[in-house]
């Protein structure tokens, strides 16, 4: 017979408190009943899980492994209860959307508010990730729908245009470069502030610099659009970001946008989902966001 949740929870409390008697008290069990449960756990796994002494208990190496897995099991059970509680309250479906930072910073939140109003019975789970991770999550079935800037590819996924995502150069208002439009080659003499190496924008500007045959002086790398903007405002360099996503910071941080005339700056965001057997709720969200683009 597999270990029950009560026994696993009792074991975790025993490890945390270093005392079986205190763990039994907190679990509302008699000491003999608690001791019996832990003995059955050790019999089941055929290994000692606790070091016992006059001063208390501590986990063996095997006990530490059980504690790690036990915590994961209890967390999964909590998530299961939370998910099922939605259905008890009247939910009729669930859909998981992964989107990149640019989409999250533009019209997507407003569109999802409207989606929730149109589909009050469908639970919408949302997560922000890089485009590369989003594609993998959709392929693995972890995400139902994704929003990416990666070019469509692969017969296993269905893609549809979502929205334009034009890139621009950001500089402080008092920066000496005063042109309103520029080729990327004209900007490579400056230090750059950028995102991490796994960001699609970083790969794009690195490849663009390499194609020109000039080095990209990427001096500072951070994780968020806002951090890039704040460092640019502080004079740490210039940067390339989606204009629509950072418009909100323009006035507050005294930034100036310079149009990049190179074709690669005109990015397109795409919706993606699995080709095979998508759920009705996944199709509904996908089609809704496609319609938002068409509007």
Count of separate DSSP helical elements: 11
CATH H-level superfamily of the largest domain: Periplasmic binding protein-like II
- Strand proportion, as a percent range, falls in 15-25%
Give the strand tally: 12
**Architecture of the largest domain, according to CATH?**
3-Layer(aba) Sandwich
Instruction: Indicate the structural class.
Output: alpha/beta
Mean pLDDT: 92
Say what oligomer this is. Answer: single chain
Q: How many domains, as an integer?
A: 3
Q: Spans with pLDDT under 50 lasting ≥5 residues? A: none
Q: Which overall shape is indicated by the principal axes computed on the Cα atoms? A: elongated
Radius of gyration: 27 Å
CATH topology of the largest domain: D-Maltodextrin-Binding Protein, domain 2
Please characterize this protein's 3D structure:
The protein is of the alpha/beta class and 295 residues long. It folds into three domains: 5-88, Orthogonal Bundle (Arc Repressor Mutant, subunit A), CATH 1.10.10.10; 93-158 and 274-294, D-Maltodextrin-Binding Protein, domain 2, CATH 3.40.190; 163-267, D-Maltodextrin-Binding Protein, domain 2 (3-Layer(aba) Sandwich), CATH 3.40.190.10. The protein contains eleven helices and twelve strands. It has helices at residues 5-17, 20-26, 31-45, 61-88, 101-104, 108-118, 131-140, 200-212, 225-233, 243-250, 280-294, and strands at residues 50-53, 56-59, 93-99, 122-128, 145-148, 157-172, 181-182, 192-195, 218-222, 239-242, 255-260, 266-274. The strands form three sheets. Strands 3, 4, 5, 6, 7, 10, 11 and 12 form an eight-stranded mixed beta sheet that branches. A two-stranded antiparallel sheet has the order 1-2. Strand 1 and strand 2 (56-59) form a beta hairpin. Helix 1 (5-17) packs across helix 3 and helix 1 (5-17) packs across helix 4 (61-88).
């Amino acid at each position: 017979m597999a270990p029950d949740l009560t026994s696993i929870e009792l074991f975790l409390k025993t490890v945390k408190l270093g005392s079986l008697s205190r763990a039994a008290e907190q679990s509302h069990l008699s000491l003999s009943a608690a001791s019996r449960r832990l003995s059955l756990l050790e019999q089941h796994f055929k290994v000692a899980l606790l070091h016992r002494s006059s001063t208390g208990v501590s986990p063996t190496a095997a006990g530490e492994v059980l504690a790690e897995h036990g915590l994961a099991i209890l967390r999964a059970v909590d998530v299961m209860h939370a998910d099922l509680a939605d259905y008890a309250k009247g939910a009729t479906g669930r859909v998981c959307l992964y989107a990149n930072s640019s989409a999250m910073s533009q019209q997507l939140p407003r569109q999802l508010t409207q989606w929730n109003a149109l589909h009050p019975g469908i639970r919408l789970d949302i997560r922000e990730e890089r485009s590369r991770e989003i594609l993998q999550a959709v392929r693995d079935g972890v995400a139902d729908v994704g929003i990416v800037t990666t070019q469509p590819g692969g017969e296993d996924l269905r893609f549809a245009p979502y929205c334009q995502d034009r890139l621009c150069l950001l500089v402080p208002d008092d920066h000496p470069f005063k042109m309103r439009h520029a080729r990327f080659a004209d900007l490579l003499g400056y230090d750059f502030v950028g995102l991490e190496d796994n960001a699609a924008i970083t790969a794009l500007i690195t490849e663009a610099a390499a194609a020109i045959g000039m080095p990209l002086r990427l001096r500072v790398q951070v994780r968020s659009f806002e951090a890039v903007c704040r460092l640019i405002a502080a004079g740490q360099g210039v940067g390339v970001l989606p204009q629509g996503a950072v418009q909100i910071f323009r006035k507050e941080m005294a930034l100036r946008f310079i149009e990049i005339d190179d074709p690669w700056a005109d990015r397109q965001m795409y919706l993606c989902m699995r080709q095979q057997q998508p759920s009705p709720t996944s199709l509904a969200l996908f089609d809704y966001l496609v319609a938002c683009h068409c509007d």
